[in-house]
Specification:
Strand order of the largest sheet: 1-2
Order of helices and strands: HEHEH
Largest sheet: 2 strands, parallel
Shape: flat
Number of helices: 3
Oligomer: single chain
Structural class: alpha+beta
């Protein structure tokens, strides 16, 4: 699915996620995005927890400050 009105600067400044089924290919325009691809299965829904945990792990590490100085 392509969103022509999507601000491309957003995809490089902010952390983005692309959730897709594991057997679907990534479209060409999505390959250039700064997005973390999370794959889920259509038939093994009990494995969604892996994508869930990966989402929160990546988001929390991205959201941490680069360096904390104690003065």
């Amino acid at each position: 699915m392509y969103y022509p009105l999507l601000n491309k600067r957003l995809l490089f400044r902010d952390k983005c996620f692309l959730v897709k089924y594991e057997d679907d290919p990534i479209q060409n325009q999505a390959q250039s995005w700064n997005a973390k691809v999370l794959r889920v299965s259509k038939s093994k829904r009990h494995l969604d927890r892996i994508a869930h945990d990966e989402f929160w792990s990546v988001l929390s590490s991205w959201n941490e400050p680069e360096s904390v100085s104690t003065v």
